[in-house]
TrEMBL record:
This is VIT family protein. It holds the Pfam family VIT1. It is found in: Endomembrane system. It is a multi-pass membrane protein. The chain crosses the membrane at residues 151-174, 181-200. It comes from the Bacteria. Keywords: Membrane, Transmembrane, Transmembrane helix. It comes from Streptomyces brevispora.
Amino acid sequence: MSDPQAHHEPHGNGMGARLNWLRAAVLGANDGVVSTAGLVVGVAGATDDRGTLLTAGLAGLLAGSMSMAAGEYVSVSTQRDSEKAALATEKRELTEMPEAELAELTGLLEGKGLSHEVAREAAVQLTERDALRAHAEVELGIDPDDLTNPWHAAGASFLAFTVGALLPLLAIVLPPQSLRLLVTVLSVLAALALTGWWSARLGDAAVVPALLRNMGGGALAMAVTYAAGELLGAAGV
């Protein structure tokens, strides 16, 4: 007999929460690596001055981390406001027309494959236990006790971007001048391979496509910005 405790497939709100955290963390890290690498490699195409590279990298790190955090906070706050509004509407409808809401819940359960009799009995029991929670979870897909948290998302994006941005920043300023570009490119590609593997494994997705997307996008970004820096440097801008 198989051990039920050995089955760890994620379901429901737990999976949704994990994917939301994963999305913010992976996007933040990838953006930190790629945008900062593109910035410092572009500047390196125009100048080899270590102070200029450090200044550009730090400015990109700070601006990017704050931008990611603010954007994630606004986005998730909007989602949270929508969830609260939907719950308030549902609560009002349960008070004003309980029978219609019971019939609606029955229909939703029928839509999941239950017979009318079983769906009706389940709807009655769920309503008696916690009507708002039943409608929130079945109708809206919301856990009333676990709404999205904008501060968590903003913090994850800020930290992930900062950690990601530190790698190309250190790679461009620490090595000798002759090795800066090579070390930076190789470090960035390695980091993007790691974040691609990490996101694929945690999200139970295919690893190879994630690696190719991350590494290909990063390589393209660095090539474009370096070429732009070379052109501007040659033009004396």
